[in-house]
Amino acid sequence: MILQCDVSETSVLDVIEERFNNKRIYTNVGGVLLAVNPLEKYRIYDESVMAQYQHFNKFAGESNSGKSFNAFQVMKYLATSNNSKVTPKHIEAINTIFNSFGCAKTVKNDHATRFGYCMDFLYYKNTLSGLSLRTTLPLETIRVVSQKAGERNFNVFYELCAGMSSETKASYGIRDQQKFFYLTQGKVGEDGGRDDAANFARLHASLEIVGFSEEQRQIIYKTLATILHLGNMYFRQRRNTTDESEYVEVGNDAELKWASYLLDVDMHSFAPCFTHKITKTDEGVNKLAYSMGQALDARDALAMSLYELVFSWILNRISLHLKCPDHNAVITVVDCYGVERYNNNGLEQLLINSVNEKLQNAFVKQTFFDEIADYVSEGLIFDWKMPSTLDNDKAVDLLCKKPYGLLYLIDDECKFPKASDESYLRHCNLNHLDKNVYGKAKNKDRLQMSVRHFFGTTWYSVYGFVQRNKRCLPGQVVKILAESQNPVVSMLFRPLANGKECADYVVYAAQQFNTASTAMIEKILGGNSHFVRCVKCNNERLPARIDMPSLSRQLKAFCVMETLQFRRAGYPVRIPFERFAQSYRCLLPSDIALCQKQKEIIVDILDGQGIKFANDFQIGSSYVFLRDRLADRLQTIREKTQRDAAHVIQKTMRTYVARKGYLRKRHAIIRLQAGLRGWKARKECSALREQMFKNLSNQTKRNRRLNAYHETLLTSTPDQKCPGALLGCFDVENFTSKEIERSIGESKSKAANMKTTTDYLPMKLKSRVSTIEPVTIEKFAEENFKGHLLEPRREPILTPFLHKENDLDFRLSIEIFKLILKYMNDQALSRAQLDDLARYIGINNPCQRDEIFVQICNQIYRNPDKEATSRCCRLLLQAVGVFAPTENVLPMLISFCGEQRLPLQTQLINTIAWRMNMLESQTARLLPASRLEMGALCGFHNAAVEVASQDGEVYTVEAHPWITNEELVNRVLRHRGIGNPSGWSVEVETEKVVYCPTGSHFLHDVISEIEHGKEENKRSPVVKRQRRQANDSFEMRRRDRSVDAIRPASRNESRRDRSLDSLRNISQSPQMYRRAYREVDEEPDYCYALPVKHKQTNGEAH
Fold first, then answer.
1. CATH number for the domain whose boundaries are 942-1012
2. Among 615, 730, 892, 1045, which has the highest number of CB atoms less than 10 A from its own CB?
3. What is the DSSP code (8-state) at residue 359?
4. CATH 1.20.58.530 fits 347-462, yes or no
5. CA-CA distances (angstroms) from residue 31 to 346, 366, 556?
6. Is the dihedral of CA 683, 685, 686, 687 positive or negative?
């Protein structure tokens, strides 16, 4: 507005009207924001629009001009900052609480704010960290007990009656709002234009948001219900027949009982507080009966005090919930009563208008007088005559100056025993009739006086001034409530009872307003304040309709035209020298700005704007003063210069970032390509190696030779084929007897020593047994046994248990059962003979393996012979460790093993699980169980072997029946921290022979071959090699791979005298074979710092 060419009243009104019609209701008038209330809601308060406005902290205007609404929008904007502890949700909740407890319907405004408040936004390190609420002007408590025609009590009472549930209202004694005296004096109607039920639901939720518990909310509601019951309490005039004195008594005990119940006080001690004045003297306690008026005043005083104290407690609780004790900056928003002028103005209007008179005086002082004083102190030449209409010091003195100001006179009048409204008016006329801002009524019968305010002359009727100014709460009431069982009520009244015992608590409204307004003005003048002048568009409260005469009257009252003219003639923008030079030195060439002093830079910048702006600035002693036109020009040029420089910086930085990103991506692509090519090459190599090992393994299985790989490589006749083992039909019983007899006569090779250990590396087992649905042996027998009952037998069978395809299998099944009977019942067989017999059963008969499992389970099932059962269990454990059952027998076998006792059950289930983890379902052992296994089976322990590496480290590793050489290598390498097992293998050494099996060979097949020494192995050139030849060939092979030497824990302690010096090259092996092992699909249980020690009996290893 200040940049307009014409600043006359007509031009200003036209501009405001045009902006209003375009729904632009905010106008900047010389540093003061003018807000026109359109009496309807605009959608302009989202975050993008809020960012265009400044922070303001003082809102002033007439009633219904939109002060509270604009203050709420500013508070909501402040709460939208990032990382704020106070959110818009909190502001919405506080606004809802204010609308309920602090607002009421008046003649001119349906949502009039009836108190003044100050909301401090507390900042810590530029972040909104808390909020503080306090009242700056007292609440209009007289409204609690009395309302004019067309007005309502505070909104919360109507919301309580409309929104509370029926059960809760019944417990508080709340009925329809028309039944309460305090709510019907204005005769407004049922709802007063508000949805009270919905507003109560919002109030209840808002109290929870700002930290009120359910119990605290119910205490608030109980206090409000108490006020309503107090209003319905009436009194009867009685006469004492003894001394003919009059007294009053409570006319309805029901309301008194409700009030006592809700306040948690004793009704019998509470009732006399309203009918008698109790005083204590030296002679004792005196009781003086109240008159009817005094009783009603005591009742109303308690109602007003309750409401005021509860409202203050709510504000304090909100401040405590959102506190920030260590804040270092504050933005304050102040809102209060607006100017009020009615046909019949009373004490409340005089107090409210007195506060607005002080605010106008503060605005004039800050906007005009302080500005002129700054010009003089800085040595500026400024010729502007202050209009006389701006000076309202006389009106302020008339109202608030001691000792004869109107507010002080009413307080003094109330302190006299026979105070009256007529006496107060006489004192006013006596002291102020000579002042031109004061007037008296021409008719002496009218108790009226007039005050010439800045917004016009207003007449006040002094009728009821004395009664409405003084509020006297009996001291006995304060004492009783301070001792209430309700903790909140007791806390609220305890500070009031700290004075003289039984002394009345007296409050003077004029004194409250005068003290509070003085403190508020001092706070406004003590900080950097911004004013928002709120005006209403018309008096009829019609939306989107502007009334120019009403607007003109308001602009004159708020000195808008004078403010605009003063700011246009003066220099409203002031900038310190240092900040001006720092901010605008970019407008000069860099070589000049770097060589000049601060004052020279300022002069060059201002002179460089041309003759057009020569009168738009002045340079003081420490500030540069600018008019808005020049300030806007400098800011525009500065922003353009900075924008052009930013474009150059952005261009350079974007080039740098783009090139850096391109080089990073190029390097990454090269690494990805190299890695992918290496991966493909390694994958192809791994596939070829796996195929080679698979072919060698298949050849070994076909020939039943463990050393076929080395025989193929080292034999002088490569085309020579290893002879295979043939299975023929023979007399099993006779052959077995001969073998057993021969085993007694032959001299055995030196038996290997076995020892028991609990310190070994365990193998990780992931069992898939639970994925098989078990089948009980009873059900299996019912479906599969052919002419047999499920029971143990001591005689040979005549037919097999399972169906057989040919006669050979039929007869072989019967012979095998005879061997099982011999194993179970022949007590003449030694331990060695039993082991030989157990090894023979089944390993040479692949087609009979399911039959063997069924026969063994049948013999174990409910067998009363414990010795026979024990032998048969060892036979079953050996069988599951040497060959696997088919899918027909597996579910039954799992169920049967799960029913056995511990530790047999664990050994059986784990052995089956190890076999199920093997990928090739047809894989079976080539040789029967070794002596190491047989020794471990006796105690149902795990077998273990010692593994020696080339650097001398020796490990004891668990060796379950189905462990392969490859698994053994991987387990040791993982423990050593070597991740890639490629190129590593094992050698099983004896005193004369070194065995080099492939990775897919079973370890116990190798041990079994060593223990029993098959004839074809004795003819093998690899077997016949001497130790020296083995060392020589190994020295040649170690260049390609590192080798671990393995020996069973049961062999002699003697080892080859091999020098470790020739094997030190293991530390110089390629890095890919020594990198840390990282298991992806399994838990990292392989990486042990120390071997695992099993202390349980069933966890020992042999």
1. 3.10.20.90
2. 892
3. H
4. yes
5. 35, 12, 17
6. positive
Give the tokens for residue 500. Answer: 């003289």
Residue 397 has a pLDDT of 92
Please list, in sequence order, all residues whose beta carbon lies within 8 angstroms of the beta carbon of residue 557, skipping any fewer than 6 positions away: 339, 454, 455, 456
| CATH number of this structure's domain 574-699 | 1.20.5
* All structural domains of the chain with their residue ranges: 347-462, 574-699, 758-924, 942-1012
CB 25 within 8 A of CB 70: no
DSSP 144-202: HH---TT--SBHHHHHHHHHS-HHHHHHHT---GGG-GGGSSS---SSTTS-HHHHHHH
**What average pLDDT does the structure give for the chain?**
79
DSSP code per residue over 941-958: -B-EEEEE-TTS-EEEEE
Largest CA distance in the chain: 153
Query: Mean pLDDT: which of 41-50, 339-348, 695-704 is highest?
Result: 339-348
- Is residue 658 within a helix (H) or strand (E), and if so which, with residue range? helix 628-703
Decide if 347-462 and 758-924 have a common fold. Answer: no
What pLDDT score does 198 carry? Answer: 93
The phi, psi pair for 59, rounded to 5°, reads: -115, 130
**Which candidate, 308, 316, 302, 280, places its Cα nearest to that of 480?**
302
Is there a contact between 786 and 800 (Cβ–Cβ < 8 Å)? yes
Q: How far is CA 63 from the centre of its chain?
A: 44
Closest CA to 508 of 409, 424, 428, 425: 409
* String of DSSP letters for 504-556: -EEEEHHHHHHHHHHHHHHHHHHS---EEEEEES-SS--TT---HHHHHHHHH
Question: What pLDDT score was predicted for residue 1056?
Answer: 32
1091: preceding bond cis by omega (within 30 degrees): no
Query: CB under 8 Å to 316, separation ≥6 — which residues?
Result: 133
Nearest residue to 363 (alpha-carbon basis) of 33, 119, 50: 33
- Number of neighbouring beta carbons within 10 Å of residue 1040: 8
- Spacing of C-alpha 1021 from chain mean position: 74
Query: Can you read off the two tokens belonging to residue 125?
Result: 């390190």
Task: State the pairing for strand pair 103-104/112-113.
Answer: antiparallel
Q: What is the Cα–Cα distance from 435 to 1043, expressed in whole angstroms?
A: 119
How is the chain split among helix, strand and coil, in percent rounded to 5?
50, 15, 35
Distance CA 1038, CA 1056 (A): 17
| 302 vs 472: CA distance, rounded Å | 9
Tokens standing for 202? 């919002």
Measured in whole angstroms, the distance separating CA 157 from the mean position of its chain's CA atoms is 37
Q: Tokens at residue 879, please?
A: 């069988």
Q: Are 163 and 199 in contact (CB under 8 A)?
A: yes
Tokens of 552: 């003109």
3-state secondary structure of 380: coil
Residues 6+ apart with CB under 8 A from 859: 792, 793, 820, 824, 868, 869, 872
Instruction: Encode pLDDT of 915-965 as tens digits.
Output: 888 765 556 787 888 888 888 877 777 888 888 887 888 888 888 888 888
Q: Could you tell me the two tokens for 808?
A: 């050979």
Q: Residue 405 forms beta bridges with which residues?
A: none
pTM (2 decimals)?
0.58
DSSP string across 255-271: HHHHHHHHHT--HHHHG
Fold of the domain spanning 758-924: 1.25.40
Rounded to 5 degrees, φ, ψ at 533 are -90, 115
Smallest CA-to-CA distance from 481 within 308, 259, 689 is with 259
- Asked if 275 and 246 touch (Cβ cutoff 8 Å), the reply is no
Q: What is the mean pLDDT of residues 773-784?
A: 88
